[in-house]
Specification:
Blueprint (H helix, E strand, L loop, with lengths): L1 H9 L11 H10 L12 H13 L5 H9 L6 H4 L3 H11 L2 H10 L12 E2 L2 E12 L4 H7 L1 E4 L2 E15 L5 E8 L4 H5 L10 E5 L6 H8 L4 E5 L7 E5 L5 E5 L3 H9 L8 E10 L2 E7 L9 H8 L4 H13 L10 H28 L10 H13 L6 H11 L27 E2 L2 E5 L15 E6 L2 E6 H7 L10 H13 L9
Parallel strand pairs: 2-6, 6-7
Antiparallel strand pairs: 1-2, 2-4, 3-4, 4-5, 7-11, 8-9, 9-10, 10-11, 12-13, 14-15
Helix pairs in contact: 2-3, 2-7, 3-4, 3-6, 3-14, 7-14, 14-15
């Protein structure tokens, strides 16, 4: 049991361990009483890192993710035989609250005063919008989240509706709320006001604007900029020199009654500024709580509203760069929420990694860096973390971060060359096959006289070098185990009832 416990204590998640420290994970599990009462093969810390790793390797199976997460740790051989059902039960024991707490602990603002593209006239730029995540079409997911339907007949996957508050300059998600497909985005957005402050300018789409929405966010001191629907233009109070105007709008009776039931006080009237401009031959209206037309010119606000689309890129990063590009894997409502909170936490850590990379090199917008390249660097750190310590992970963070940010610009006549994001393998020097053009010696391919194990099984010949055999069996040290013993272990593993052959 001691060896099994040590695996959970030694498990890390690559350079992201600098964000999700063991102390932070243990505090989150203890807060919600999810710490194990007895020694387990899958302790709470290991399961938390496992759920986070599922988001990094969204297209890999449970068994493959746990192997990559614990490979090379002494005593991890038992985990290599852990099946999917055991890992699913461990996720259910952990619950969704631990991952939500972990996200809220790390989801702090990333932009500093020197961050390019994150500020306008002293205001931090934030974007507010909603999106949907497809989930597996299980009975419990369909009953809990619902989905699209035609004439009462459901079609497609059930969907989780999420409303996110994100920094425009860094794409870091500061807060989020999850609900079902039938939940309104505006109702989900109200609690997000707690994450805003007087130095924030929130840019939103037309579906959010209302008297109640204005009051909820301006109470915290935040400012708003949103596109208006035709029924939200209000009553004109004053025409301003820059072509905008001040308007007034009163809350309806239903809004006032709902506010009284909830113990909230609504203002009798709200004054805001309306900016009208033409786009594609049509009039478009923007509403803002920035009433000073001299300090906040209308033309700049019109150009600034286009920055709202940065949050769509954040959605794409979560769904496609991290996620599978389709339905996520969890088939229960609790697992779905747990997985989505994990995605948001990992995405924020990736954006923190990108922001650190941008700050370490020449001045460049954080959102100009390749998110996919940052994800690839983090994935490689997880796979190659065998024997890693906190000092080594800290060094890996500092060495990896500055290396990724520089957006390469092709020189004239070199547009056809592969980019750094393609991560092409070094090309061999024709004069010396063992030397690449970068000047580093590379191991040659195994020769016929190398140690090779041949195992006859089910009509197939399995050829494995000593290193590959040890990897297949989950060995951490390949030098201390004779080839003959590894071959015998492989034979016994194949003869076990219900076992599968190791693929070629």
């Amino acid at each position: 049991m001691e060896g099994k416990t040590s695996v959970g204590q030694r498990t890390r998640i690559g350079i992201l361990t600098q964000v999700f420290t063991p102390e932070l994970v243990d505090a989150a599990t203890a807060k919600h009483s999810r710490a194990e009462q007895r020694r387990r093969l899958l302790p709470a810390r290991l399961v938390t890192y496992f759920v986070l790793a599922l988001c990094l390797f969204a297209r890999e199976s449970y068994e493959e993710v746990i192997r990559m997460l614990t490979s090379g740790i002494p005593g991890s051989r038992a985990l290599a035989r852990t099946n999917r059902s055991s890992l699913s039960r461990a996720r259910a024991r952990l619950g969704e609250e631990v991952l939500e707490s972990l996200f809220r602990q790390v989801a702090s603002p990333l932009a500093t005063p020197g961050t390019l593209g994150a500020w306008w006239r002293g205001l931090r730029l934030l974007a507010l919008d909603g999106t949907q995540f497809d989930v597996p079409d299980s009975v419990s997911n369909g009953d809990t989240f619902d989905g699209r339907s035609t004439g009462g007949t459901p079609f497609g996957f059930p969907e989780v509706r999420a409303v996110l508050l994100s920094e425009i300059g860094t794409h870091g998600v500061l807060d989020a709320r999850l609900g079902g497909y039938r939940d309104g985005e505006r109702a989900l957005a109200y609690p997000l006001a707690a994450a805003t402050g007087p130095s924030d300018l929130i840019i939103a789409d037309p579906g959010f604007w209302s008297v109640e929405f204005m009051h909820t966010f301006t109470t915290t001191g935040a400012n708003l900029l949103a596109r208006l629907q035709s029924n939200h233009l209000g009553t004109t109070q004053e025409e301003l020199p820059d072509g905008s105007r001040l308007s007034m709008m009163r809350p309806g009776k239903e809004v006032q009654l709902r506010a009284r039931r909830e113990g909230r006080t609504m203002p009798q009237e709200s004054v805001y500024r309306v900016i009208t401009f033409a786009k594609d031959g049509k009039e478009v209206h923007l509403g803002t709580t920035l009433l000073d037309h001299e300090q906040y010119p209308a033309a700049e606000l019109v150009a600034l509203y286009r920055q709202r689309w940065e949050i769509e890129l954040a959605f794409d990063e979560i769904k496609n760069h991290l996620g599978p590009g389709g339905p996520i894997r969890s088939r229960t409502p609790e697992g779905v929420r747990q997985e989505l909170w994990a995605y948001l936490a990992v995405h924020h850590a990736v954006r923190q990694f990108a922001h650190a990379a941008a700050a370490a090199g020449p001045a460049v917008d954080t959102d100009r860096l390749s998110c996919l390249r940052c994800v690839r660097i983090i994935r490689r750190s997880v796979v190659s973390q065998a024997g890693a310590t906190r000092t080594k992970l800290t060094r890996a963070w500092s060495e990896s971060a500055p290396g990724s940010p520089q957006p390469a610009v092709a020189a004239p006549g070199q547009e056809g060359l592969p980019s750094r994001d393609q991560e092409a393998a070094p090309m061999a020097d024709p004069a010396d096959p063992g030397r690449t053009r970068q000047g580093q010696r590379q191991p040659l391919e195994p020769q016929p006289d190398d140690q090779t194990a041949q195992v006859q099984g089910r009509g197939k010949t399995l050829r494995r070098t000593s290193a590959n055999l040890a990897t297949s069996l989950g060995r951490a040290d390949t030098r201390r185990l004779p080839v003959r013993r590894r071959v015998c272990d492989l034979k016994s593993r194949e003869r076990r009832p219900g076992s599968r052959m190791i693929p070629m």
